[in-house]
Amino acid sequence: MDQNQNIADAPPVARSAIRKVSIRLVPFVALMFFINYLDRTAIGFAAPNGMNEDLALSAAQFGFASGVFFIGYILLEVPSNLALHKFGARRWLSRIMVSWGIVALLFTWVQNFEQLVVLRFLLGVAEAGFFPGAILFLSLWVPAQFRGRILMLFYLAQPLTTVIGAPLAGWLIQQHEVFFGLEGWRFMFFGVAIPAIVVGVVAWFYLKDKPADAKWLTTDEQVWLTDALDREKAATQKKEHGHVSARFAFKSGRVWVLSFIYFGFIYGLYALAFFLPTIIEGFQAQTGQTFDTLQKGLITAIPYLPAAVVMYFWSRDASKRGLKTWHIAGPAIAGAISIPLALFTGSPAATIAVITVTACAIFAALPNFWTLPTRFLTGAAAAAGVALINTIGNLAGFSAPFVTGFVHDWTGGYEFPMFIVGFVMLVSAVLMVLLARSNRINPATVDETATDAAPAVDAEALSAAADPKGDAR
């Protein structure tokens, strides 16, 4: 099957199988991701709504507490994904959700900076492996030629987390007097933690590990999906000389370069996620207006609704044309230019408009980026490779809030920290272009003892990995 084939051109059994997976699995896994992202970024909503004041946190302390989550996350990322490969996604993703829900619940009663740091670290340990595990899980259900569409639908959960989650967090903060008499930010932590535990339990019974286990697929649909995925796996193993071990992923030059590209996107993403609510808090002094908590949540959500729309159409274009270098490098350049300009616009409305461009850029690139690793990795190598890329990328989850907070305390403003964000995203764009050019000069080869060459980004070069009938070019 051609890499550029549209779902409408596929055989009827393929269309029905992909449609059922899109309806039965993707929304539920996206809901899990929604809760995951909301729980890890809830601290950003709590900070300007009483937490920083109650716990006497400086900007640097808040940045460190926000980022230390990723230290625990990184330490167990790869082992967790290998465990998912061994024990199955249903059991492991359920275990992860219940674990992080319990830890997230404890934030309700945090009393000081030290306790906040410990809980953020433990939250990272509990969540380790969820995101790459979800990516790997979906890749085990959908052949590569349709994977960009599925990952786009899954990734819609992330911008929608802020579109829905920011006003929800604001509403929860305002309801504290109705429930338990907790401070607003404490009740907000309580309110976003409970769904993780509930959905984690449901996932144990709802998810299935492979198409053959899904009673909601017909026999023909099960056979088509299983055969297509088996052919793709066999073709990938043959192309990569049978190297499907975790060791191969760690030796892969492609994996490492993709890891550093992802680092830049995540640096920009979390700089926005953790500090945008605080920047919006500064609008009050700038305009003389006073916003209530719900209004702040709604303002925080503004950039992410256009981001979801842009991500949808950008991913559709990549699916229609075939993935091109500029589908990933272009948004990185747009984000690199826009984010430093956001604080020099002179008005809150213009600031939000420029931040919206940044959010659109980041989310346009991410689902397309995640179609790349599983095109040349399979088996344990895919589990380890996806986890490694996410691990290196999430180093930015620690460094972005910490560096941003530290430099803010040092300079007294957010201008210089945002230039750093722009520079890091620009590096991602440059690496993406170099990756593609390197492949055109040196066709991909794999050697047992050497680092592999860079992967093609354009569709014709990717088709050999995605299509078992494709010819290497």
From TrEMBL:
Keywords: Membrane, Transmembrane, Transmembrane helix, Transport. Its main location: membrane. The keyword Phosphoprotein does not apply. Residues 25-440 form the Major facilitator superfamily (MFS) profile domain. It is found in: Cell membrane. It is a multi-pass membrane protein. It comes from Microbacterium ureisolvens. The chain crosses the membrane at residues 21-38, 58-76, 92-111, 117-141, 153-173, 185-207, 255-277, 297-314, 326-344, 350-369, 376-396, 416-436. InterPro entries: MFS, MFS_dom, MFS_trans_sf. CDD domains: MFS_ExuT_GudP_like. PANTHER family: PERMEASE-RELATED, TRANSPORTER, PUTATIVE (AFU_ORTHOLOGUE AFUA_6G08340)-RELATED. This is MFS transporter. The keyword Transport applies. It comes from the Bacteria.
